[in-house]
Amino acid sequence: MAAAVGRKKILVVDDSETALMLQRLTLERGYDVITAKDGRAGVDLAIAERPDLILLDVVMPKMNGFEACRALRAEAATRGIPVIMVTSRGEMEQMEQAFLSGCTDYVSKPVRSVELLEKIKQCLGE
Amino acid sequence: MRRSLLLRRKVEDSLEERALLEARIAELEGEARRIYANYAEAAAQSAHFAHLFLTVQRLRAARGREGIYEAIRELVENLVGSSEVAIYERREAHGDEHREGCGELLAGPRGEAGAALQLGASFGVEPEPPGSISLGAGIVGQVVATGQAYFAEHTGEGAEGEVTACIPLAFEHRILGAVVIYRMLPQKPALSRLDHEILSVLVSHAAVALAEQRRDIRTAARVSCEPGALWRGGSLGGVGSMGIEEEAGT
Fold first, then answer.
1. Protein fold of A9-124
2. pLDDT beyond 90 at B91
3. What is the distance between the alpha carbons of residues B62 and B141, in angstroms, rounded to a whole number?
4. A92 reaches B (C-beta below 8 A)
5. From the record, what ranges are coiled-coil (chain B) (predicted)?
6. Which of B42, B59, B177, B225 has an alpha carbon within 20 to 30 A of B53's alpha carbon?
7. Do A91 and B186 touch (CB under 8 A)?
8. B117, B118, B124: which is closest to B161 by C-alpha?
9. Is beta strand B132-134 parallel, antiparallel or unpaired with respect to B85-91?
10. B 59-98 → A contacts, CB under 8 A
11. CA of B76 to nearest chain A CA: how many angstroms apart?
């Protein structure tokens, strides 16, 4: 499907089919959504597509969310893209690790769509 | 004197106007809060419908027993808020699918006495006891025996291995097994009314998916038990037997 003019692009990286379907349902009304199913593929797609924002799951095969976030920050093309990390366990230790890897913000599962959309708008300055 | 009276009147008018404005601001703020509350409620309701839709879609798209188990795990983690899930399936003593498939070819007792619950899959938890549970034993055995869901009264994460919810997988008045949810995620203190609705839709569609999966296996088993079935398949160019092997392998 062709991208709508003026719409911002969000990359969702998650190995769970359910999470990808859920984020599509939540985001597609306002944004163009592209997806990747592991951390490595997510980083490659981010470099190629330069999305406006990345939604990154923590537990993933090949490269986890923290590693992927560090790789995105190390790459000039993706360094400035806001990253929202999706954590399963909303514990302080995991949040600290998320921020240390360079994420902009985080949400915990189960993700509440109102909260997620508010954070996305905030990150995108909308 | 007169100037002073005029000024006093002006001050009084200004104070009155200020009070009116403050009252109007308070009124508008209240209205804004009400509108936001309505918006939040509508958004939450819309999200809930989206979750129910997603549950149905995800389970309909799941292929094979492992695929159904994985869909259940993902739905519970992403929509309900627990990453500790187990799925038990009811099996007769000689294996439901093969027995029903082969009909008279298998002898032996069947029914409640030979029934047990077999652990189909577990995620993020090692259920106790591992393996199988007798029908009627413990929370899971009771839920399957009675068909009544169990919801723990505790709020909060719960202790390790503690069951938060156990819901029967019912299909056409038969209990095929149960989905067991252990500890909730730390940020999700308890199951809400909406979670109960999602779980209800989840187990009914999961039961249909598992029943279809069993039916496919039964069909394959029935054909494989029929004398000369493979030979007949071979005489038709092998198409029949190839199809059976693929189905049985899912």
1. Rossmann fold (3.40.50)
2. no
3. 26
4. no
5. 11-45
6. B177
7. yes
8. B124
9. unpaired
10. 61, 71, 74-75, 77-81, 83
11. 9
